[in-house]
Design a protein that fits this description.
The complex is a heterodimer. Chain A is an alpha/beta fold. Chain A is 40% helix and 23% strand. The N and C termini of chain A lie far apart (70 Å). In chain B, 73% of the residues lie in helices and 0% in strands. Chain B contains 22 helices and no strands. Chain B has helices at 2-9, 13-18, 23-39, 56-77, 81-108, 112-117, 124-158, 160-191, 194-222, 242-255, 260-295, 316-324, 328-343, 345-367, 373-379, 386-397, 400-403, 414-418, 425-455, 460-480, 499-519, 524-546. Classes of the chains: A alpha/beta, B mainly alpha.
Chain lengths: 260, 555
């Protein structure tokens, strides 16, 4: 049985459809890359799957439960790491993680221990009692990652999780994700950064303007599209051939409009 | 205070459980929100003075209670209950609405909350109740701070029933304030963009700052009991003013007067707030939630903007820059200063209240002596008070000079250093010119027109001399502080240091100028000679400023 299933999912904001009928199902233990340009509907899909948005058309089940009928059962077993570092930044990482842990009804002493250990791994141990409003984007992202994983969820949803992280942290997070996969977790990963998705995904789904336009392993997509990196496939699939001419125009304008 | 109010809430636990509310998670959320309230930056208290680790909320509540003392004194010294109560309830509605708009907007318009809380296993009833309790506790904390002293005074002065009634009417007034705020937000959300809302909130915050600073000076002086008539007469429009309903309702309890007028007022006082509350929760709240959701919907297609058709109109700052500046570096600095000062929230919050003082100062100085405004206005043309009009703008605008050196994006100032600018002095002069043209000249011109109207053409020479004098002193003031490039310093880094000395010098310079000006008031030809001299000094100072080299710039 598939762990996540979407059937004919549509979503509109004041008449404009941002999802135009998505049909997908995923197996347990996979890393799924969900990619597409800005405004393609990636975040909206994730918000539907995590129960943030409940007014949509179509059917969605996660872990065998309907997201509209039994959201509590789902929410206990999923972790969500949103984009744009959405967290309460007047709190300290420890306060924030304890708050989140309590919402999952974890034991307080246990959360504290776990949070400290995880913060230490992310080199934030010395900052665990400092307020996060002074934190860099990367530091906040690390706290968010921990907050999405602290309750050992079955499915992990990540929305642009690597943005703002430094190179070492990116490698670390990628490795964590692939080890989580080996531990049997399902990872649903949305991004517009091609090369990250290419290397760790078992399956890649490309969406554009609210519809799935490609679905398969990296190899399959490569065969289907132009040869080369995923970026080429991506460009080919989204019909964006204009980069070359745009770049040429850019240089021309730069040269021509000078003083005098 | 929040913590023990929360203890009271726990009395309702059985009720919550029966409704399917998850009590543990409920308190986890509410406690967290209360904790965060104590850490938010409160606008009615000046920003620079807030330190981390301090409980800002307690400070602000103490401030409100202090203000409540004034109100208590007013109520105590009022001969009639009704007038005191009208004053008090107006004050409650005003303070609550202002607080809600300026500070609570951060909470109301905050939607990061959804991203954090909705994916967690919290059922919707629990979340709704948590938000409701948080809002109620917030309101309660502020209403206690605002009303505590006045209510205590009322108990003491007017007895038990009036005090008890006042507890109820004050809460009804709070409800009215909530409704007003809601309505304002809804209107703004309906007709405006998110950016506009933030702008509007900023202006309310400026107004709030102004109110607090001036209120502390003026309100205690304004309470002159003998000037207020002891009797209150009901007009037809009294039925439209909520504080009057509340006051009359209390009067009926206090004086045991239940004639038709009192009964109508009593009914209005109780029914209208409840009715409005019902309308709010029934009709406005859902619509509000929807508007908010739209506001934060990134996927919504952007409003159609056809590229290329955008009109190439030159903005005011561009046109003024060509008039007032002599080269492109200076023009660049002029436009940068012009635009950032108009858009940077921190600058506006710190400086606009200073501009707000101008009309208040003028009012106080011109009309302070007499009580009859018309009389004062008639006598005005025989006085020398136009001297104030000439030098007040300088005094207020001077504070913008140090402020423009600070900016949140101070790191962006690398641009000055990476560009082939040989004379950074032009950056400074362009910056200063923008401040003068944007904030000084309009005020000065307005005062000139007013003065011309009151005193006639005889003051033209005074205003010419005053103009050059003011500009010279602005340059002197900018000279006194270290030379930083505009928007190049990190805010809050010892922003206060050396300020005192500067203020004293500023006062001395202005006093000296006014004195010189005063001594030659009736000698027009000397006045013109001095104006010419002042202009020559000004010219040299500008040249000097423009010629400043890189090694004189502080980093």
């Amino acid at each position: 049985m598939s762990i996540i299933q979407l059937q004919r999912v549509k979503k509109h904001y004041s008449g404009t459809y941002v999802l135009q009928g998505i049909d997908l199902s995923f197996d347990k233990g996979q890393i799924v890359g969900y990619i597409g340009p800005n405004g393609a509907g990636k975040s909206t899909t994730i918000k539907i799957l995590t129960g943030i948005i409940s007014d949509f058309e179509g059917e969605v089940t996660v872990l065998g439960h309907d997201v509209r009928k039994e959201p509590m059962l789902i929410k206990k077993q999923i972790g969500y790491i949103p984009e744009q570092a959405a967290l309460y930044d007047v709190l300290t990482p420890m306060e924030y993680l304890q708050f989140v842990g309590k919402l999952y009804q974890l034991d307080e002493v246990m959360i504290r221990k776990k949070a400290l250990e995880l913060l230490r791994l992310f080199e934030l141990a010395d900052k665990s009692d400092m307020r996060m409003n002074g934190f860099s984007k990367g530091m906040r992202q690390k706290v968010l990652l921990i907050s999405g994983l602290i309750h050992n969820p079955e499915i992990i949803f990540l929305d642009e999780p690597l943005s703002g992280l430094d190179a070492n942290a990116v490698i670390l997070v990628k490795e964590i994700l692939s080890q989580l996969k080996h531990a049997g977790k399902t990872i649903f990963y949305s991004s517009h950064i091609m090369d990250v998705v290419e290397k760790i995904s078992d399956r890649i789904i490309i969406i554009n303007k609210g519809a799935v336009i490609a679905d398969g392993t990296f190899e399959e997509l490569r065969e289907a599209g132009d040869k080369g990196s995923l970026e080429n496939i991506f460009t080919a699939l989204t019909g964006d051939h204009q980069h070359l001419s745009t770049a040429g125009e850019f240089v021309d304008i730069m040269k021509n409009f000078t003083n005098g | 205070m929040g913590k023990w109010l929360l203890k009271l809430v726990q009395l309702f636990n059985p009720l919550f459980r029966r409704q399917g509310i998850d009590v543990d998670r409920l308190y986890t959320i509410v406690e967290m929100k209360l904790l965060m309230d104590t850490r938010r930056v409160y606008m009615s208290w000046k920003q620079g003075q807030q330190k981390e680790n301090k409980n800002h909320l307690t400070t602000i509540l103490l401030l409100y209670s202090l203000f409540g003392i004034f109100m208590g004194v007013a109520i105590y010294s009022m001969p009639s209950l009704i007038i005191g109560m009208i004053l008090f309830h107006s004050y409650v509605i005003f303070m609550m609405a202002m607080t809600l708009i300026t500070d609570f907007s951060a909470v109301l318009l905050d939607t990061t909350d959804n991203q954090i809380l909705l994916p967690r296993p919290i059922n919707s009833k629990t979340l709704f109740m948590a938000r409701l309790i948080h809002v109620l506790l917030y309101l309660l904390q502020f209403s206690v701070a605002i009303c505590l002293v006045p209510i205590a005074v009322t108990f003491f002065r007017f007895g038990f029933p009036a005090g008890l009634g006042m507890i109820i009417t004050s809460q009804l007034s709070v409800l009215l304030a909530v409704f007003l705020t809601y309505l304002l937000y809804l209107l703004v959300l309906r007709f405006s963009t998110e950016q506009k809302i933030k702008d509007i909130v900023t202006y309310f915050q400026i107004g709030m700052t102004l109110f607090f600073t001036i209120g502390y000076q003026l309100i205690p002086r304004m309470i002159r009991v003998e000037q207020l008539s002891a009797t209150f007469t009901v007009h037809w429009y009294s039925y439209l003013i909520p504080p009057v309903w509340m006051a009359m309702a209390l009067d009926s309890i206090y004086a045991l007067n239940f004639d038709a007028v009192h009964v109508v007022m009593l009914i209005l006082a109780i029914s209208i707030p409840l009715l409005l509350y019902w309308i709010m929760s029934r009709f406005l709240a859902p619509s509000f939630a929807k508007q908010l959701a739209n506001l934060n919907n990134d996927s919504e297609p952007a409003k159609k903007k056809v590229a290329g058709v955008v009109k190439q109109r030159r903005s005011i700052s561009t046109r003024l820059a060509t008039v007032f500046c002599i080269n492109s570096v200076e023009r660049g600095a002029f436009q940068l200063t012009w635009k950032i000062t108009g858009r940077d929230k921190t600058f506006r919050l710190q400086f606009y209240p200073a501009l707000g003082y101008i009309p208040i100062f003028v009012f106080i100085i011109i009309f302070s002596a007499g009580k009859n405004i018309n009389n004062e206005l008639a006598m005005l043309s025989y006085s020398n008070k136009f001297l104030w009009l000439i030098y007040i703008p300088l005094f207020a605008v001077a504070s913008s000079i140090p402020l423009v050196t600070y900016n949140e994006n101070f790191q962006a100032s690398w641009i000055y250093h990476s560009m082939p600018v040989s004379k950074p002095g032009y950056l400074l002069s362009g910056n200063l010119k923008a401040l003068v043209v944007k904030y000084f000249l309009p005020v000065y011109l307005a005062f000139f027109v007013f003065a011309l109207f009151v005193w006639g053409p005889a003051i033209i020479d005074d205003f010419i001399l005053g103009l050059f004098n003011s500009l010279v002193s602005l340059l002197v003031l900018s000279r006194l502080s270290e030379r930083f490039l505009p928007f190049s310093r990190q805010p809050n880094a010892k922003q206060q240091s050396g300020k005192f000395l500067q203020v004293i010098l500023q006062m001395l310079i202005i006093a000296l100028l006014v004195l010189i000006h005063f001594l030659m008031l009736d000698r027009t030809y000397i006045m013109y000679a001095f104006a010419a001299l002042s202009f020559i000094i000004l010219w040299f100072m500008v040249k000097n400023l423009q010629g400043i080299a890189w090694n004189k710039i502080s980093v």
